[in-house]
Design a protein that fits this description.
flat, mainly alpha
Length: 171
């Protein structure tokens, strides 16, 4: 794979802006290797345990895998956040003159993320209503209460992302 594309994917996944220097790349490679090893062992052990549980009760095996995967995903997310903060890899350094412009950029980016999140959640809620509760998709998607909920969730997500972006800025 092209090195430029790989660097862009790494920067996007970890939320790193600016230059991906050798120190950051080394630290991310180290963390990625550790995370891969832990995840590999988890998959190996959880698959074996699920297979043992499946013999007696397939429903418990499915619940075990789903709950375990959600828990491991949450732990991975929080460990990535902790690692990036500890090593200060996600800090964006700007001079005082460029600070207001960077805040505006983050504000616009947060609005875009809020709209994207609100629309995605609204569509996913309508799909889940149609699948789980056997409601009509178009009735669910045009429901005023569902639209209001999606708007509120989008705004809340946008505000949270803006706060996260501001916490990463360093004058």
């Amino acid at each position: 794979m092209n090195k430029k594309i790989t660097n862009k994917m790494i920067k996007f996944f970890y939320g790193i802006e600016g230059l991906l220097d050798e120190y950051k790349k080394t630290q991310l490679d180290k963390f990625g290797n550790i995370a891969f090893i832990i995840t590999w062992w988890y998959l190996l052990i959880s698959g074996f345990v699920a297979m043992l549980l499946y013999v007696n009760n397939p429903k418990i095996a499915a619940i075990f895998l789903i709950a375990g995967n959600l828990l491991i995903s949450a732990l991975a997310l929080f460990s990535i956040i902790y690692f990036l903060r500890k090593k200060k890899l996600d800090i964006v350094e700007v001079d005082k003159r460029a600070y207001p412009e960077k805040k505006k950029k983050y504000f616009r980016k947060s609005i875009g993320l809020a709209v994207y999140f609100g629309v995605a959640i609204h569509i996913l809620n309508a799909i889940s209503d149609a699948v789980i509760q056997n409601e009509n998709f178009w009735t669910s998607i045009s429901s005023v209460s569902n639209i209001c909920t999606a708007v509120f969730e989008g705004i809340a997500f946008g505000v949270c992302m803006y706060i996260v972006y501001l916490l990463r800025l360093k004058k």
